Description:
This protein is an all-beta fold. Helix content is about 0%, strand content about 55%. It has no helices and 13 strands.
Amino acid sequence: MARYNAGWSGVTCVTAADAGVSANTQYPGTLRGGSxxxxxxxxxxxxxxxxxxxxxxxLIFARASTLSVGALSVGTNALxxxxxxxxxTLMSWGNTAATSGPARSATLYLLNxxxxxxxxxxxxxxxxxxxxxxxxxxxxxxxxxxSSKVGTGKSSGHIIYELV
Length: 164
């Protein structure tokens, strides 16, 4: 098992409608399976606000009803323990898809992370055995996207996940 930190920095969100395709660089990121059998367990989501004025923002971590297409980029995806052996197939992370971005499901919300991005923080941490899982590479279970439902706050943060 290998643990990874997927991060973003200084992203100004644009409100996205449910089932609407997320525009490149306008959401913190999406975590997508690398193959039909890739399993990731999300352990933590942390968001830190970076605005210079009060900006209430609601970020939703949800399953994708339509997967992103093409290579993902912009953001970081680093192995936490340098002594771990990375598996053959990794998860993809980023907020810029080569062809098209993901669409947040209207019914498969996993976390509702609200904060005032004028210095506020929002953090969710799973108890052991209650991690959010992303499995495979198909819609509804193979990709989870963090995007804004309300507000245009600027944030940086990370998602800690483990490949099993």
